[in-house]
Amino acid sequence: MFSSAGEAVTTASIKVVSKAGIQWESQHPEGMRKIQQLEQGKGFQPTNEEDLSFDKPVFTAALVGPAELPEGSNAHFECRVLPVGDASLRFEWYVNGVELKMGSRFRVTHDFGYVTLDISSVIPEDSGVYMCKVIHLKIILN
Asked: Model-level pTM greater than 0.85?
């Protein structure tokens, strides 16, 4: 069983300036359904080697990113979080209060306290307030 041992949140905003002539419809809708099925199979799986003595996570550097970008550019957001060696930290990304649906244009990394979100070829719908939420899960042993 898991319970939240604490969480922290940081946000940044971006506005994407539109270009004309963008095609919004998927050219391969069946491919997107398959990707979503694969992504649903991912989840948190603890190991026996985890050190469960970490404290509540804290952002040591707030989320920063571009304030405005032209459509088609790449966006890069980054922040820093402690504890850096806690394997039980779970990161969630939101845009305008809605959990970000990861796909081929989005790349998330978290390495030794350095957390990033990269978005390739931004579109106007990518505009908004981005939030990184880190949750420290602790295992409750019965």
From this structure: no
